[in-house]
Design brief:
Layout (H helix, E strand, L loop, with lengths): L3 E4 L2 E4 L10 H5 L2 E9 L2 E2 L2 H14 L8 H15 L4 E8 L17 E8 L12 E7 L14 H12 L4 E5 L6 E4 L3 E5 L5 E3 L10 H12 L4 E3 L4 H5 L3 E6 L3 E8 L2 E2 L7 H16 L7
Parallel strand pairs: 7-8, 7-14, 11-12
Antiparallel strand pairs: 1-2, 1-6, 3-4, 3-5, 5-6, 8-9, 10-11, 10-13, 13-14, 14-15
Helix pairs in contact: 5-7
């Protein structure tokens, strides 16, 4: 069966889907995107993702392509038409089609919307085999990383550097201060030398991860505390544990950084506990459905 995409008001075979060559998302990266995980036909943390989408489009002075209730119907329909119950749904909102000019179009044009979905392997049953290594890499992104922009070239280059080093993620750091920011496509956490769970605080240099937010809420409900406090490459080198979170990685341990083991080089007790907690969140939380 051909995959089906939603493109600017139409459901079309993905192999035939296209956008105008003067689409501003294509020419300038003038747009926003979101990725949502589907589990058992349910959209995980959809409320968080859609709220972040609304915030991001507002930050770049872009309107929503349709009311939120209508957008939810489109997302559900794309999943239904593709018969995907376990997968990743991608949505991209752009400023639309206009004569190429850096400034916004003088005459408003319709906002563009593209939605696709693809199947992914089932949610892992345990951390055994669900781990990775990482490299550190200078953070060369723009100054508003809190906006989920489609401008991802620095992220692409960082991930490629990780791949060429045989690693699964690049952990980004500020070259001026050696302070860690996040992964190229993930939120990054450590358990420091004193046993505290830490993640860099939100701000213009950090994307407000939806899985991060859901994880922090789950931790609070289970009596676990995380410190939203900066940490350096030196502190990372001394960490007992490290792990990433994202809509595609859930909770994934990082066992080595730059070829050196983190802690004893095995998934630690904190990551194991958080994996169990988040698995229950994904599989049973009432909020994980489009309302």
């Amino acid at each position: 069966m051909s995959r089906i995409a939603y493109v600017n008001g139409r459901y079309v075979a993905q192999r035939d889907a296209c956008v105008n060559i003067e689409d501003r998302g294509y020419q300038f990266g003038d747009g926003i995107y979101e990725v949502v995980h589907l589990y058992d036909g349910r959209f995980i943390d959809a409320d968080l993702h859609l709220a972040r989408l609304e915030r991001s489009v507002k930050e770049i002075r872009l309107g929503m392509p349709m009311p939120l209730a209508s957008l939810k119907l489109v997302l559900a329909e794309v999943a239904r038409r593709n018969r995907v119950s376990e997968g990743l749904l991608y949505m991209q909102v752009g400023r639309g089609v206009a004569r190429r000019d850096h400034a916004f179009p003088n005459t408003p044009v319709p906002v563009s919307l593209v939605v696709t979905v693809r199947r992914v392997p089932p949610y892992p049953s345990s951390l055994d085999g669900w781990s990775m290594s990482a490299i550190t890499h200078p953070d060369l992104r723009w100054a508003r990383r809190d906006i989920k922009s489609v401008n991802l070239l620095p992220n692409v280059l960082a991930r490629q550097a990780a791949r060429e080093a045989g690693a699964g993620e690049a952990i980004l750091f500020d070259p001026a201060t050696s302070m860690v920011t996040e992964g190229a496509a993930t939120s990054f956490w450590i358990v420091d030398a004193e046993g505290s769970i830490r993640i860099p605080p939100l701000g213009p240099t950090i994307l407000p991860g939806c899985t991060r937010a859901a994880m922090l809420a789950e931790m609070a409900e289970h009596g676990m505390r995380a410190e939203e406090r900066p940490f350096s490459l030196d502190e990372l080198a001394k960490a007992r544990e490290a792990f990433i979170t994202s809509a595609t990685s859930f909770v994934k341990p990082v066992l080595a950084v730059d070829g050196k083991p983190v802690g004893d080089g095995k998934p630690g007790p904190v990551a194991r506990r958080l994996f169990e907690i988040f698995a229950r969140h994904v599989k049973g939380a009432p909020r994980n459905a489009l309302q």
